[in-house]
Amino acid sequence: MDTHMAIDQQRLENFLGKAVSDFGAAVSAALVLIGDKLGLYKAMAHGGQLTSAELARRTGTTERYVREWLVNQAAGGYVDYDPATGTYALPHEHAIALADEKSPFFVGGGFQVITAMMKAENRITQAFLSGDGMFWGEHDHNLFEGTERFFRPGYAAHLVASWIPALDEVKEKLERGALVADVGCGHGASTIIMALAYPKSRFFGFDNHAPSINRAHRSAHEAGVADRVVFEIAGATNFPTRAAYDLITFFDCLHDFGDPISAAKRAHETLAPDGTVLIVEPMAGESVQENLNPVGRVYSGASVLCCTPNAIASGQTVLGTLATEAQLRTVLMAGGFTRFRRATQTPFNRVFEARP
Fold it and tell me: What distance in Å separates the CA atoms of residue 239 and residue 170, rounded to the nearest whole number?
């Protein structure tokens, strides 16, 4: 480093301020997860002003830990502090995002995902040097539950209400009774949401991660849809078929595959002639500069720690979380599809339709 280079002091100070802010955000991710796991946010929701001792009593936790936890949460703007009374409150709007898992704005799962991925830091550091990958199933177990909790609110809010209606004639098929394959289904949140909405249709969820499929089985029984949902351990390139599928779905997973073209080919082989493939992918731009925003920052980080390593470990093609629409189109076309379009989108998702 050239120590004689002129320094813009204000720019340096602004950056240091940003770095300190990021320190706080990074360490607070674990504290948000602790609050989520221990029910601290739920206890504060609509609970008025509370001292650390009162919150500790409500949750059966130790006041000495709760004391600084509340300071951290107030410093980050997650809870409000009243210096006149020495009490804290969780604003109603924040409670919707932090304490209500059924809310479409719930963010607790995101912190569970982030803290789980960070535990792979040493392994990924070595991967930068070796070029090796890391399979999805090798991550901390919180990643699998957190992924479901992170994506489920968006699926619940948009899948039936807007994503499926944006596809050509798919809603009507599902209402009449269709055969659906949900590939890379994880814990089965997307599969179960569709099964609840379309009781005349039959659904198969496939994933190569056995613990996730076991959890999906339990979830189907808990939701009362086990009569029309079957979950099986199977990969994206070899999932079975009993008859041609009317709809095949890839929810936030195609970019993780090491061989997405073969996955697209398998979808094409098992799809009915008038069938549809629904692909939901993270929101990403077509250029680097279009990803230089908070959403792009989150997704690019997740790509480095999780998605790209899994693709490297399992194949030769690495799309990554920031795969462009052009790249996705190329994959589907190479798989045999002739029609591909963006059907709709949200601030966090792109929703594509592919047809033979």
Answer: 22
**Tens-digit pLDDT profile for residues 232-245:** 999 999 999 989 99
Total-model pTM: 0.93
Beta bridge partners, 279, equal: 250, 352
SS3 258: coil
* Residue 24 dihedral angles phi and psi, to the nearest 5°: -60, -40
Sign of dihedral through CA atoms 179, 182, 188, 189?
negative
Q: 354 vs 231, 274, 347, CA distance in Å?
A: 24, 11, 21
Q: Is there a contact between 149 and 109 (Cβ–Cβ < 8 Å)? A: yes
Which residue, among 232, 231, 264, 235, has the nearest Cα to 248 in the 3D structure? Answer: 264
Reported as a pLDDT band with limits 50, 70 and 90, residue 5 is confident
Sheet strands (E) in the chain: 80-82, 87-89, 179-183, 202-207, 229-233, 245-251, 271-282, 339-345, 349-355
Question: Which residue is it, tokens 């994933």?
Answer: 207
Distance CA 202, CA 53 (A): 51
Between CA 227 and CA 307 the distance in angstroms is 33
Q: What is the pLDDT of residue 2?
A: 57
> For residues 178 and 201, is the Cβ–Cβ distance under 8 A?
yes
| Residue ranges of the chain assigned to CATH 1.10.10.10 | 9-100
Any residues with CB less than 8 A from the CB of 239 and at least 6 apart, and which?
Answer: 181, 183, 204, 206, 232, 266, 270
Determine what percent of the chain is predicted with pLDDT higher than 70.
99
Architecture of domain 9-100: Orthogonal Bundle (1.10)
Q: Is the pLDDT of residue 306 over 70?
A: yes
Please state the rounded mean pLDDT for residues 63-68. 98
Average pLDDT of span 296-307:
97
Rounded to whole angstroms, how far apart are CA atoms 243 and 241? 6
In CATH terms, the fold of domain 158-355 is Rossmann fold (3.40.50)
Distance CA 223, CA 220 (A): 5
